[in-house]
Design goal:
407 residues, alpha/beta, OB fold (Dihydrolipoamide Acetyltransferase, E2P), seven-stranded mixed beta sheet
Amino acid sequence: MLLDITSIAAGGDGVARHDGLVVFVPRTAPGDRVRARVQAKGRFGRGTLLRVEQAGPGRVAPVCPHYLRDRCGGCQLQHLTLEAQRAAKAQVVRDALGRIGHRDVPLPPVHRAGEPWRYRRKLTLAARRTADGWRAGLHRAGAPDEIFALDDCLIAETGVVAGLQRVLAQAASLLPHVSSLRLAMRREGDDLLLVIEGGAHWPEAKAFAAAATEVAATWWVNDEGRRRLILDRRAHRDAGASFVQVNAEVAAALASHVERVVRRHAPRTVVDGYAGTGDVAASLAAQGVVVTAIELDADASAVCAARLATPSAAVHARVEDVLPTLLPADVVLLNPPRTGVHERVTAALAESDPTPRAVVYVSCDPATLARDVARLRGWRVESLECFDMFPQTAHVETVCELVPEGL
């Protein structure tokens, strides 16, 4: 089928329309005319790119050999210029807010910051045990059960990639005796930190950590989700296994913007939901704002608590469990995971008396952001700005400032 690609959908697929059929074709660009094999189901179709008959203005040759040769699923937009990537992300955010969130918003700016390559300080590999030993790599696009051996990842720091490869060379035989694992390596300062996920028992854990000499600290997350610190060689210990943004430079720019948006409302009290280790909470508290920082991860919450002086405080809990007891507040800051906030969170905000002056919502998924905004009836989008935290991929970070209607 001959298709004209008009836009990029959430997730990075190109979109074409043909005789009433909406077709999603991976690795295509707006303005492309492509030949594709299409499987249709109802009004929608999934296309497999056969060849590009005419390239759109934003198409470029992908730099990473894994992108085309191995159909790597880690990146979705390497075939677009950075300008075209950011234009696509802005449109995805706007479309989601309109279609799901029922808010008519202008195209948001997408701030560029940092480097488009080698920006990730964390890399996660899928590992499969084979007859010849462990095979570790990344998933193929559209085939989550398939992995390919990784030579390099051009969006990850070279030290992180090399660190993972050396660990596998040093100590792969000491990994848990299971068929599959996840290995996540992250740089924190000068240290490499490793989290291994999978397995019910790991009697060789300490021997593995001792053999992996490049790693400063090793954690194991078993099949029940329980995390255990195996070995820590660091001089300074923190919440190293907790979530952090993988792009440190853009994360700093985003945090500064979030703080400016919060400060615009001159708050005396702020509730910081999903606070992590408390970077924004600590900065606001240092300026005289009374901050209550909610975080479920125990290690991160402990670090946050140590950074806050009374009357500010950290609360180790789920946001939906404690937010109703912590309102009212002048401003509520939300920075949830990709799944968005629980419906009890938006219900608590709607029922708060008095109503917060603003909700500042930091999102890594436009669809769940839009869903949660739709739940906040009576609130309008005051500002919407995006940050290109993950160049070459379809992911985008969005800061949505919401204020009550009538203000």
